[in-house]
Amino acid sequence: MWLKTHSRFFRTAAACMVLLFSVSSLLSAQEQNAVVIDPADSPAEIVRKAANVVPSRRQFDWQRQELTAFLHYGVNTYTGREWGDGTESPAVFRPAALDADQWIRELKAAGFKCAILTCKHHDGFCLWPSAYTEHSVKHAPWKDGKGDVVREVSDACRKYGMSFGIYLSPWDRNSRLYGTEAYNDYFVKQLTELLTQYGKVSEVWFDGACGEGANGRKQEYDFVRWYSLIRRLQPDAVIAVMGPDVRWVGTETGRGRETEWSVVPKDNLDPEAIAEHSQKEVLTAPVGDMRGQDLGSRKVIEKAKSLVWYPAEIDVSIRPGWFYHADQDSKVKSPKELMDIYFTSVGMNGVLLLNLPPDKEGRLAKGDVESLRGFRRLYDTTFAHNLLSGARVRCRLSDGKAGNVIDGDYDTSVRPELKGGKAVFLFRTKRPVTFNVLSVQEDIRRGQRVEAFSLEVKDAGGKWKEVAVGTTVGHKRLLKFPTQTAREVRLTIGQARAVPTFSEIGLYRLVE
């Protein structure tokens, strides 16, 4: 949806692409969600500050989900378009057997934790009976105009214990108000409906599309007002990807960066406002492009005026398009492709947002479901058992027990001693194990700090051989390498911004 259909708006509608950032109260004496860089700060002090920027509670809970789903559904499903123009008749929306229970049941079984529904796309057609427009399901033949897709999806999410998210397109090609100040009032009314009538909302998703409306005008979005409303009505909801909590990774390929920092510069945080409102969020509205390859290196942060925790959501569709099209039934990504995407999204310190578009019947298509199920089988086969479980672990520690990194519990962690800026974890298993995947996780509640690491195995001749290297870790870093068999392995942290906190370290075998 972004790369093929939205990227041009990043180039032509910068004024509409407002990103809001939060500055929360201090989390501890040192740890903060954002920090201001003083012009007199040395490079070492800037690195120290960066090492102590941490996620808010809502950001942490969001990152722990790992797998989220997008459900693109609406009039485009029936017209064959990716972008509707707002002139579609509600009569085209006529699913024969809409089954939101099936959507959420399959996603839950595949390990997904949140489902985000396109409640309104750019065409302005609302999947709920909004009181503020006639362009909605209340004028569709489906259920004689008494249906509510948002209700059915939110109910299914509660039934299966999944989080529920909403996408509400700021661009509305149907509304005559679009392009006027009155549209912001209209948008707030619709957003209020979604935030108050459907229970808990865990994620609110906006994009940067800002084209012309029916009157030929573009809209100046009042993001500050919208975000303040969300904070008041759904305070636990993360706001992505045009929001204060989560950023867009910059592609629609399912691939993050080899070096993905969650701590990035933002240059309009007001130190006086932060001091004055130290017990509250301070919302500011900078304009910026977060699609570059280097967002948070030492070189980049040295030039920053402030730093914030702003993690990446990595989106991709299971099909070439974002809405269902029958001619793409043979182009569904395979389980192996989805596993590769898991490695390049979740395994690169991001959260995967995978789109699965319901078909014209109102169900997830057979091929999509089969691929989703195949992905889950491959995931379970790969990650069901940490091959380091039960191993002897040696490391000079300043806090925690060495075995905490292989106990399968993210909430138990260790802090190694850094000697010469380095730390080494040595693992010895009871018998030789065969593996080709390394997983490393920092406890991001204590910051993101690792800048370089490597994995070595001891060969039959007793010599150490390097098999994998990486840069950043963050919430999770996965590395694949040629299959190895060994009893002794060591993980070396070659560079860090400060003493890192490790939650889990694992070896696994991916059979492809």
How do you describe this structure in short?
The chain is of the alpha/beta class and 512 residues long.
Labels describing this entry:
single chain; 512 residues; alpha/beta; 8-stranded parallel sheet; 12 helices
The number of distinct helices, counting runs of at least 4 residues, comes to: 12
Structural class: alpha/beta
The helix fraction, in percent, is 10-25%
Question: What is the multimeric organization of the chains shown?
Answer: single chain
Outline the low-pLDDT stretches. 1-29
Q: Order of strands side by side in the largest beta sheet?
A: 7-6-5-4-3-13-12-8
Number of strands: 21
> What Rg do the Cα atoms give?
24 Å
Major pleated sheet: 8 strands, parallel
What percent of residues are in strands? 15-25%
Average pLDDT, all residues: 92
| N-end to C-end Cα span | 29 Å
Gross morphology? globular
Write the layout of secondary structure elements.
Layout: H1 7-12, E1 21-23, E2 34-36, H2 43-51, H3 57-65, E3 67-71, H4 76-79, H5 100-109, E4 114-120, H6 149-160, E5 163-168, H7 181-196, E6 203-206, H8 223-233, E7 238-241, E8 247-248, E9 263-265, H9 271-276, E10 282-284, H10 298-301, E11 306-309, E12 312-317, H11 335-344, E13 350-355, H12 366-383, E14 392-394, E15 397-399, E16 415-416, E17 423-442, E18 450-458, E19 464-470, E20 477-496, E21 502-508
Parallel strand pairs: 3-4, 3-13, 4-5, 5-6, 6-7, 8-12, 12-13
Antiparallel strand pairs: 1-10, 2-11, 9-11, 14-17, 15-16, 17-20, 17-21, 18-19, 18-20
Helix pairs in contact: 5-6, 7-8, 11-12
